[in-house]
């Protein structure tokens, strides 16, 4: 809450709901939201908090609106990557990946300009061991379309 200028006691008010470890939203925002939308809100909040990190793996796929199966959508932890030189983020609901990466491995989201995510090539590589062949081809097709 401090990151957004709110006093920590604000989290205990009745108009605030908890989305995850240290992530809160106004009840009206969360009330009619789908599980995927709540997941996205949680991911965006965590990305704001950890500025040195970027969203990766299935989390980045979902934020790029790539076609993913329910199995991938149910992959509930937020995937976030940090350079190998940084400490691992240990937090409930977060899967941290410490990676050796260059500047070309990270890009800004095409619509959410402050948000850093894995580049299309890196993202395709990250998902290669997780997705089936048809899922990987569909993701790759989606990742190479414009504006990416």
Write the layout of secondary structure elements.
Layout: E1 16-20, E2 23-26, H1 27-31, H2 35-49, E3 54-55, H3 57-63, H4 70-73, E4 78-83, E5 94-99, E6 106-108, E7 116-118, H5 120-127, H6 133-144
Parallel strand pairs: 4-5
Antiparallel strand pairs: 1-2, 3-4, 6-7
Helix pairs in contact: 3-5, 5-6
Walk me through what this model shows.
This protein has 148 residues and is α+β, with helices and mostly antiparallel strands. 34% of the residues lie in helices and 20% in strands. The chain contains 6 helices and 7 strands; from the N terminus they run ββααβααββββαα. The chain has helices at residues 27-31, 35-49, 57-63, 70-73, 120-127, 133-144, and strands at residues 16-20, 23-26, 54-55, 78-83, 94-99, 106-108, 116-118. It has a 3-stranded mixed β-sheet. Strands 1-2 form a two-stranded antiparallel ribbon. A two-stranded antiparallel ribbon has the order 6-7. Helix 3 crosses helix 5 and helix 5 runs antiparallel to helix 6. It starts with 15 loop residues before the first strand and ends with a helix. The mean pLDDT is 82.
Primary descriptors:
148 residues; alpha+beta; three-stranded mixed sheet; two-stranded antiparallel sheet; 20% strand
Write a brief caption for the model.
With 148 residues, the protein is α+β, with helices and mostly antiparallel strands.
- How much strand content do the residues show? 15-25%
- Helix fraction bin: 25-40%
| Strand order of the biggest β-sheet | 3-4-5
Distance between termini? 33 Å
Number of strands: 7
Shape descriptor reads globular
Mean pLDDT reading: 82
- The rounded Rg comes to 16 Å
The secondary-structure class comes to alpha+beta
H/E element order: EEHHEHHEEEEHH
**Spans of at least 5 consecutive residues with low confidence:** none
How many separate helices? 6
Largest sheet: 3 strands, mixed
């Amino acid at each position: 809450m401090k990151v957004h200028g709110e006093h920590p006691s604000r989290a205990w008010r009745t108009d605030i709901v908890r989305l995850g470890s240290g992530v809160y939203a106004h009840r009206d925002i969360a009330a009619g939201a789908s599980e995927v939308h709540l997941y996205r809100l949680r991911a965006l909040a965590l990305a704001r908090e950890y500025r040195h990190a970027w969203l990766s793996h299935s989390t980045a796929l979902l934020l790029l609106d790539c076609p993913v199966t329910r199995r991938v959508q149910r992959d509930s932890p937020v995937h976030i990557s940090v350079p190998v030189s940084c400490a691992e983020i240990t937090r409930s609901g977060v899967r941290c990946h410490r990676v050796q990466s260059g500047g070309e491995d990270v890009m800004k989201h095409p619509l959410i300009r402050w948000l850093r995510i894995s580049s299309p090539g890196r993202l395709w590589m990250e998902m290669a061991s997780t997705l089936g062949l048809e899922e990987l081809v569909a993701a790759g097709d989606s990742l190479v379309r414009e504006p990416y």
